[in-house]
Each structure stands twice: as structure tokens, then as C-alpha cells.
Design goal:
- By secondary structure, the protein is an alpha+beta fold.
- The protein is built from three helices and 14 strands.
- About 16% of the residues have low confidence.
- The protein binds zinc ion.
- The site of zinc ion (ZN) has 5 residues, from loops.
């Protein structure tokens, strides 16, 4: 009897190994497909990733990915804005506001080093990542005590940073996603689109 059990276990692990090998190969094919025609394939990959839902992993294309996993709503883009009922809100919005709901996981958009993970004025509880080459991303308004990274940590696209909240100058839970190049805030939409990750 023990032999039978062993055989079954061996057969199972063989099957598991086959499945793992198949998945690895499939991923390899996907990665190669994405990297080579950088601007042709990502749309398809992004499309399949969007069905992942809040609990899934964010869609990653090459080295960059969405800061939220699955579908999200969009409330405010980059540029001048008029917020009559919010005296403290800036008149020029330097980021891209997106949300899934209070407590949704926020992810690093690209590889780099965490240079801030703390309370930061109007950003509330925020994380700032230095991606090198003068590029920095900021993730604002996360819930207090929700940060999962610390200053000095190395992250990649998809590393969980914290949970969506409404700390700082914020009306309702959302992620303020900001991109700075050489210290100047730039529009996150074309920045991410150029990396195969169109925001909406
Ligand atoms: Zn914002």
C-alpha cells in the first residue's frame, strides 16, 4: 500500500511539475511577446489583466505596471481645476486620481527605491519612489498605519505599498498618483501610456 501512495504522489508531483513548466513557458512567451513589439501587444495584456479584480495582481508590462489591480474608477486628471467646495485643494492638479474603494491595495508602478513612506502634508500618508533618471512617483492619501514599505526599500512594479484611504487633503478614498521628472510634476497619462499602460 505505501508503494501505491508513493506512486500516486510521484505521479501527482510529476503532473504538478508539468503544469509549472507549462506556466513558466507560457509566461516566457508572454514576456517575449510584450518586450519585442512594446507598443503592439501591451493593450491585449492590459485587457486580460483588467479582469483580475481588486484581489488580483496589477497588470505589469515590462518594468512598469498599474498602481491598482483590476478595474478602477477615475475622478480627476492632471491640469487646472476648479474645486469650489474645497478651499485647501490646489488649483492645478499635479496627479491622476483613481479609486477602487477604501482599503484597496496600492502597488508600486515601477522599479526603484522608496525615498519616503510617511505622513507628507496634503498627500497624507504617502509613499515616494525614486526610479532613477530623475523619475519619481508619489502615492498619496493612503490609510494611516497601512504602509507596507519603508524608506530605503527596493521595490518593483506590483510591490504592495499600502491601502487606499483619504488622509491629507482628500475628499473620499482615492489614490493620488503623481509622476515627477527632474522635480517637475508631469501628466501621468502620457507617461504611463508610453509604457503600454493607458490610464483612463
Ligand atoms: Zn489627486
Amino acid at each position: 500500500m505505501p508503494n501505491q501512495v508513493l506512486l500516486v504522489t510521484a505521479a501527482r508531483s510529476k503532473t504538478v511539475r508539468r503544469i509549472v513548466t507549462a506556466v513558466v513557458l507560457l509566461n516566457l512567451v508572454l514576456v517575449l511577446g510584450v518586450v519585442t513589439p512594446l507598443f503592439a501587444v501591451p493593450m491585449v495584456v492590459a485587457g486580460t489583466g483588467m479582469s483580475g479584480g481588486i484581489t488580483g495582481r496589477p497588470t505589469v508590462v515590462g518594468e512598469w505596471g498599474y498602481p491598482l489591480a483590476g478595474d478602477y474608477s477615475y475622478s480627476d486628471g492632471f491640469g487646472p481645476r476648479n474645486v469650489p467646495d474645497c478651499a485647501l485643494c490646489s488649483k492645478f492638479h499635479r496627479g491622476f486620481d483613481m479609486y477602487q474603494g477604501c482599503g484597496a491595495t496600492i502597488y508600486a508602478a515601477g522599479p526603484g527605491t522608496v525615498i519616503r513612506a510617511s505622513a507628507w502634508g496634503g498627500f497624507g500618508n504617502a509613499v515616494e519612489i525614486d526610479h532613477g533618471g530623475g523619475v519619481v512617483t508619489i502615492y498619496g492619501h493612503m490609510m494611516w498605519d497601512s504602509l507596507m514599505v519603508q524608506q530605503g526599500m527596493t521595490v518593483v512594479a506590483g510591490t504592495p505599498l499600502g491601502l487606499e484611504g483619504e488622509t491629507g487633503v482628500s475628499k473620499g478614498c482615492h489614490l493620488h498618483f503623481e509622476v515627477r521628472v527632474d522635480g517637475v510634476a508631469v501628466d501621468p497619462e502620457p507617461f504611463m501610456a508610453a509604457r503600454g499602460l493607458p490610464l483612463k
